[in-house]
Amino acid sequence: MWGVDEMVKLLNVKLLIFIIVVAVLGVGLLVWSTRGPVTTEPLPELPAVKVTPVMPQPVAPRHTLRAPLPQVIKLPVYQYDGDVVANFSSRWPNALGFSGEPQEIEDALEGTLLLWSKEGETLVVAADGSRLSYRVDLSTETHPTGVFGSFLPSFEAAAEIVGGTLTELGSTSELLEHEAAKNKALKVGVEYVRETTVDQAELLEIHFTAKIDNYLLYLPSGPEQDAVLAWVGRNGKLLRLEYCPLGTVGEKIADYPVKDEEELRRDLERGKGTVVSSSLEGGEEIVSVTITKVSLGYLRPQFGATVIQPIFVLSGQAKAASGKTGTVTLYLPAATPF
After folding, report:
1. How many CA atoms does the CB half-sphere of 323 hold within 13 Å?
2. Per-residue pLDDT reduced to its tens digit, 37-85
3. b/e 28-60 (16+ beta carbons within 10 angstroms → b)
4. Strands (E) located in 146-223
């Protein structure tokens, strides 16, 4: 049995606990009522990645993802300046020895092209400065000094020749890297150029890729096209130059989260992937895509864009409505939010 004194002590303890609880709740309520709304700094708004698809039809909304995503949590988004081709219409032709007014050509995909020609050599420049294509006619009947001569330089020397030409064009970039793994030794056939051994080669194919933070910088035309492709023949003569200006990467805007697998699947089902290359014919309707490889990179924006953003490069097998199969590559924005 409890005595009177014990019961009084127990009531005092319970009363003390009640007073403490009420006091804590009161202080908490006061803090809540005076602290104001919770705010977070919003991420800067970024425009959606825009690419010019090689294939006009959208990807059908049936995808199978069999490739793991790169384990990257965040990637930077940078400011971008693509306006680096001022006066290209005079500088590039002059540096390559062309003169006079160009012929204008309308292309369905690339728009207006400017064409110069002279003595078996041609130069084609996109009117917006987004591409340069210089070629020498390799036919010995029309240009006998184009291929044959006294010596063929080494791959390293040929790469230096290409780099020197870019300097003369005023088109060097700190993003460019000589991609030695893509070098090829070539031999001129009757109607084509084929790969051969170095000791039988008549010209060397040199590649330069571009990278940002060790990630490849992809062009809107697809991952197969490098920023620079060149042929160098005997006596170090430049026989071909395919060049896409890269623009200038500026300050970092912010680090953005990279989409996870669920977000990637959802974007694919919503048709946000853009087909940039396919071995299927242009008229074939794609009904399903099985993705077997996923990589991360950056996409060189179209000129006039102000930011450069990371993308997923997805490749795999596509099936057409006709039953035919082929390879396919898609670009898809990799950072959120867009």
Report:
1. 0
2. 333 334 344 444 444 444 444 544 588 899 999 999 999 999 998 755 5
3. eeeeeeeeeeeeeeeeeebeebebebbbeeebb
4. 176-178, 184-188, 193-195, 203-212, 215-218
pLDDT tens string 189-246: 767 889 999 999 999 999 999 999 999 999 988 898 999 999 999 999 999 999 998 8
pTM check: above 0.85: no
Query: Phi and psi for 297 in degrees, rounded to 5?
Result: -165, -170
Cβ-based neighbour number of residue 190 at 10 Å = 5
Buried b (16+ CB within 10 A) or exposed e, 214-223: ebbbbbbbbb
- Locate tokens 């199978």: which residue? 64
Phi-psi domain of 14 (left: phi exceeds 0; alpha: psi -120 through 50; beta: other): alpha
Which residues have CB under 8 Å from 167's CB, separation 6+? Answer: none
Sign of CA dihedral 144, 148, 150, 151: positive
Residue 147: pLDDT band (50, 70, 90) is low
For domain 84-246, give the fold. TATA-Binding Protein (3.30.310)
Give the domain ranges of the chain.
63-79+250-333, 84-246
CB 210 within 8 A of CB 216: yes
CA angle in degrees (0–180, nearest 5) for 88-94-99: 110
